[in-house]
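Per reviewer request, we include the raw input and output of the structure prediction for the construct analysed in the revised manuscript.
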Amino acid sequence: MSSDAPSPIRPTDTEARSLARGLITHARFAALGVIDPDSAAPMVTRIAFGTTPQGQPLSLVSDLSHHTRALKAAPVASVLLGEPGARGDPLTHPRLTLQTGARFLRHGEDGHAELAAHYLRDHPKAKLYIGFSDFSFVLFDIRSAYLNGGFGKAFVLTPDDLGF
């Protein structure tokens, strides 16, 4: 590819920011990419996904899961949001990749009870296990984001673009 080729990345605009924020706000699950501490290879899994009252991405995770162990060993992650619709080419549907840092909020720490109440509004079935001692919240601190709004609609977003 020639270095004179035009960039496929469009300038970030209001529509791209709004689409990305909507994907974050409405997602209830996501694909989580972490670094496996045993092999140093990438590992992807599906997680429940939500946000804090301020809109920061998070998940409720168990210490028994391999991805939690991976996040504790290397607190960085990639989170993919957006699913194909029931019809059409899956590549025409919007999706957002978040590159993040990860930090944990455990039972008894400041803000955990309030966050748990907020999380249960969107994830009521988590009531069955949210109180288990091996569960904690992982908060994803967005470092950068990559939006694919469909064919020819690629954007690079910053935390500021997303309101963080």
